[in-house]
Description:
Layout: E1 10-16, H1 21-25, E2 36-37, E3 40-41, H2 42-52, E4 55-62, H3 67-79, E5 84-88, H4 94-102, E6 110-114, E7 117-118, H5 121-132, E8 138-143, E9 153-156, E10 162-166, E11 175-183, H6 187-196, H7 202-211, E12 216-221, E13 225-226, H8 230-241
Parallel strand pairs: 1-4, 1-6, 4-5, 8-12
Antiparallel strand pairs: 2-3, 6-11, 7-13, 8-11, 9-10, 9-11
Helix pairs in contact: 4-6, 6-7
Amino acid sequence: MLRKKKRCKMRFAIISAGEGSRxxxxxxxxPKPMVQLNGCxxxxxxxxxxxxxxxxxxxxxxxxxxxxxxxxxxxxQKVSEVPIRLIIKSTPSSMHSFYELSKYLQxxxxxxxxxxxxxxxxxxxxxxDKFMQSDVDGLMAVTxxxxxxxxxxxxxxxxxxxxxxxxxYQKDIRYISGGIYCLAPCALETLQKCMDEGLSRMRNFxxxxxVDGRYLKAYPFSKILDVDHASDIQKAExxxxxxxx
Length: 245
């Protein structure tokens, strides 16, 4: 009799502290984490996927201006099968949000993502399994699908080891960052260095990982979307409808 493979436990974290100003300016009344995609709030979708991937805990940061999201997550905490830790703090950048989350991510491998990152669940599960079986310091989700106003280009060698992160396209670069990061505990040492040096933005943290000699590899997804504009909601819904689990 074949036994079902047991999925490894790890922590997951969600950066959801942005203001979502572009969405609100374009007439979307809900805060970004609560925006519905095919009837499911974006933050709920991530929590459900993380649970199915064996999350031991989910750590979430939201800003001080999200009472609806706060109330929703506080209720979810009471009934969730996986412990949810909620941090409520406004921060100046995504890297600063990561720093607030990092206090609860010490000592083991973890996965971090932004709340509006949309991907195929099957690809994500394969990505998590690959990371748990690997000895890399970071396995970074990348895609060759580019639909971003300011993409972060990812340089790689023939073995998909990451060689650099660039704001502008460089010759022979194939991928951009997908905004999903699987990291080993040593990455938090680099994060602390970034904070000590007064840096901000996740892309600068990623550059510092390379400077520090961390062993990073790229993991290609067929497609990753961000929900930054009202028009992105329909794109995300169509993408998810076409790739049902």
